[in-house]
């Protein structure tokens, strides 16, 4: 697959030239649940309500449980580990101030496509500008919402950006999509699976116990298969049982890490 070919062209370089800092995967001592920005205000327009209904209908179709996004309540997020936060989209520059001052966020990883931002009327450029003013590194790894195949293909690069930001150790990393219920938690779970020594079910349960959500586990398994199963005669992922690649051997995890490291800057 394309990911594997790109990976192996860089692995030798990654092994010989890059050094990586120890990653802190420590879970926070306290679980604060989902926190709400106190500066949030309720929207009252019918168009905003219709947008939420439209989005939630699509979300319910793609998830096993009927989780909903309440845009009118403002940005919401959950501390997953000491240096990793998963949440919904920042809606205004003041949200960036909050993340910097209250949570010491030094990196933001945005999984949204342009059309997601436009759908909710977010002025992304003003948010990026505020990030620059506050010294926050804003990164984008767009994946199509409600599309497991798009998420699967983007997970290696997104996990690469997340792992790099955490390894820099300059502050917390805020990972978000639109609602913080699908793409963003999937990237966080993938990172915990590949880099924190957990199997997929443990990583999934750890995150979802803190932030109730429904990320696509099959997309994570598929991305793991793409990187770890490099035999030219490998069986198709679609023919494998549901438990396949929910856990991996140490050599497979090391192979995945080398591949992910090689994607830095791509």
Automatic annotation (TrEMBL):
Superkingdom: Eukaryota
Domain Tyrosine-protein phosphatase: 76-233
Keywords of the record: Carbohydrate metabolism, Hydrolase, Protein phosphatase
GO molecular function: carbohydrate phosphatase activity; phosphoprotein phosphatase activity; starch binding
InterPro entries reported for this sequence: DSP_laforin-like, Dual-sp_phosphatase_cat-dom, Prot-tyrosine_phosphatase-like, Starch-Glucan_Phosphatase, Tyr_Pase_dom, TYR_PHOSPHATASE_DUAL_dom
GO CC terms of this entry: chloroplast
The UniProt record lists the keyword Zinc: no
Pfam families documented for this protein: DSPc
Tyrosine specific protein phosphatases domain mapped to chain residues: 153-212
A single GO BP: starch catabolic process
Protein name, per record: Tyrosine specific protein phosphatases domain-containing protein
Species this chain originates from: Fagus sylvatica
């Amino acid at each position: 697959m394309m990911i594997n070919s790109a990976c192996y062209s860089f692995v030798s370089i990654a092994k010989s030239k890059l050094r990586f800092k120890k990653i802190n995967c420590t879970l926070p001592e306290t679980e604060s649940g989902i926190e709400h920005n106190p500066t949030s205000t309720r929207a009252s327009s019918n168009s905003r309500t219709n947008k939420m209904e439209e989005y939630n209908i699509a979300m319910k179709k793609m998830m096993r449980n009927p989780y909903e996004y309440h845009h009118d309540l403002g940005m919401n997020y959950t501390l997953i580990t000491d240096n990793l936060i998963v949440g919904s989209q920042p809606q205004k520059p003041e949200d960036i101030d909050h993340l910097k001052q209250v949570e010491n966020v030094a990196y933001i990883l945005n999984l949204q496509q342009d059309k997601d931002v436009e759908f909710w009327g977010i002025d992304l450029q003003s948010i990026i500008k505020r990030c620059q003013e506050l010294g926050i590194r804003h990164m984008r790894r767009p994946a199509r919402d409600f599309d497991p195949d798009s998420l699967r293909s983007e997970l290696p690069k997104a996990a690469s950006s997340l792992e790099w930001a955490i390894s820099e150790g300059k502050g917390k990393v805020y990972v978000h999509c639109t609602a913080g219920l699908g793409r963003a938690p999937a990237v966080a779970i993938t990172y915990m699976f590949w880099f924190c020594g957990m199997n997929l079910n443990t990583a999934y349960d750890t995150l979802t116990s803190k932030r109730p959500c429904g990320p696509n586990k099959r997309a994570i398994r598929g991305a793991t298969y793409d990187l770890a199963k490099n035999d030219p005669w490998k069986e198709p992922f679609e023919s494998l049982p549901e438990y396949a690649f929910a856990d991996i051997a140490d050599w497979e995890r090391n192979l995945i890490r080398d591949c992910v490291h090689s994607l830095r800057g791509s």
